[in-house]
Amino acid sequence: MTAATVPASSEPLPRDLVKLALALMLGAIMVALDMTVVNVALQTLVNDLHTSVATIQWVSTAYLLALATVIPVSGWAVERYGARTMWTVSIVLFITGSVLSGLAWSAGSLIAFRALQGLGGGMIIPLIQTILAHAAGPDRVGRVMGVVGVPAMLGPVLGPVLGGVIVSDASWRLIFLINVPICVAALVAARRVAMPDTKRAAAVRLDVAGLALVSPALIAIVYGLSRAATYGSFTDPHALVPVALGLALLLGYGLHALRMRGEPIIDLRLFRDRRFASFSAIVFFFSMAMLGTALLLPLYYQQVRGEDALHAGLLIAPQGLGMAIALIAVSRLADRIDPRAVILSGLALTAGALLVYTGVAADTNIVLLSAAAFVSGAGIGAALVPAMAGAYAGLPREAVSRATSSIRVFQQLGGSFGIAILAVVLERQTTAQGSGAAGLATAYGNTFWWALAFAALALVPTLLLPKIRRRAATPSLEPSPANT
Questions:
Q1: Pairing relation of β-strands 468-471 and 4-7?
Q2: The domain containing residue 235 runs over which residues?
Q3: 211 has pLDDT over 50
Q4: Contacts of 198 (CB under 8 A, 6+ apart)
Q5: What is the CB-side half-sphere exposure of residue 90 using CA atoms within 13 A?
Q6: Burial of 79 from C-beta contacts in 10 A (0-12 / 13-18 / 19+)
Q7: CA distances for 451 relative to 288, 293, 294, 418, angstroms
Q8: Kind and range of the H or E run holding 469
């Protein structure tokens, strides 16, 4: 296969593009924090709402399932109704769910309102990626994706810290109500920036049959994986049945998508492009490693070192710092050099940090662990920016929105698989090693080998990437028309 050619640019980003990225960053911050901030408050919710842990876990599960539901339809919606309209709809849904969650009077009402919040939150990240890909074009998409990706990477780290502060010093209701001013700011900022025209010239018909297959498939798989983490086994019927059902529905969708004449809700034909397929696989495996590590580190500090949730969050803050620095630094290079070199560097950093974690003990030096967290974050950030940007290289304008839905599905499933597998491995290792501090530390060290394997798997699609030559900058995918 001949080498692909992707434009490179050393010119500063246009002012309008920077303003657009900053406005969208508000939405990224909101969703990233909300994914993790609630976890710290689960025990408080059990006490205040007079319910059980098994019931209150649905506060998080309902949000994730609703989020998975709308990912496939986001690409079609932004083509049908336009970027500005869908951005407004998603933010309004999110703010409505946030307010109602903050006013919830029972566990059942809170679960229902979190699902509503998830419908809005599930569209926000795909919309951000689609809007920026359209506005920036292939020569600038790496730089803007890197900057906007900072809050998304910091969410798993800062969320527990913010949640711990709120639960310790105020009411759990503020965890949801704090979204309101951010939502309002996101709406106001979006009205003051030019958004690209993402509508298709011809009316886009919704692939109803495809949506009826792929959304329930994602829901079943995400739910089954969450049950596997809870029950400590993939063979438990609570996990096996929904995962098997989800995979069967995905198979049915694959047959449907490849046979239909129109445009499927998720276009599998995109994966015929070796670049797109390889970058999507890299995103999948690094999402497994990133979210899996985000699960293990705070649990290690709490269960082995006896730290509370707040201090555990602070101890893994170096990982978020490493991600942020890498995202900003790599975004300056992502549009200029062959992404394989950057991804391989990120893979090496991540593998080195995870290798440190495999030897973790009950008294491992905190400075060493913090340094490893920083390096791990830097490696993941370095790999994800060129992978996310590279996926759009060479795609025609009309394929951008559907490609974003596909990439987001891979992110969601990768994270779900990573968390579930590591939770099951940790449960079995804990049983085998014992519940003492030394035994627990050994269990965590053995589990980190699996996280290292996830990162190592990304080496295969990285090596399969075609060589990408850089050329002079070209105009973005489109000028910067305001989408009214």
A1: parallel
A2: 207-264
A3: yes
A4: 78, 79, 82, 83, 130, 131, 134, 400, 401, 483
A5: 32
A6: buried
A7: 8, 7, 10, 8
A8: strand 468-471
- Number of domains present in the structure of the chain: 2
In a domain, 482, yes or no: no
The CA-based angle 423-427-430, given to 5 degrees, is 135
What's the CA angle centered on 380, arms 288 and 297, to 5 degrees? 65
Tokens at residue 86, please? Answer: 């869908």
CATH number assigned to the domain comprising residue 282? 1.20.1250.20
Residue 461 in any domain: the answer is yes
One-letter amino acid of 417: F
How many CB atoms are closer than 10 A to CB 81?
A: 16
Please spell the DSSP secondary structure of 368-393, one letter per residue.
Answer: HHHHHHHHHHHHHHHHHHHHHHHTTT
Among 13, 19, 25, 24, which residue's Cα sits nearest to residue 142? 13
Residue 370 corresponds to which amino acid?
Answer: S
Instruction: Report which of residues 438 and 371 the model is more confident about.
Output: 371
Could you report the per-residue pLDDT of 137-150, keeping only the tens digit for each? 666 666 666 666 66
Which token pair is 223? 């739910």
55 and 169 inside one domain: yes
Inside any domain, residue 60: yes
What's the pLDDT at 151? 62
Q: Does residue 399 carry a pLDDT above 80?
A: no
Rounded Cα–Cα distance for residues 322 and 47 (Å): 36
Query: In 3-state terms, what secondary structure has residue 7?
Result: strand
Strand partners, 469: 5
177-195 tens-digit pLDDT: 888 888 898 888 888 887 8
Judgement on whether residues 23 and 130 belong to the same structural domain of the protein: yes
Q: What is the pLDDT of residue 139?
A: 65
Q: Which helix (H) or strand (E) holds 29?
A: helix 15-37
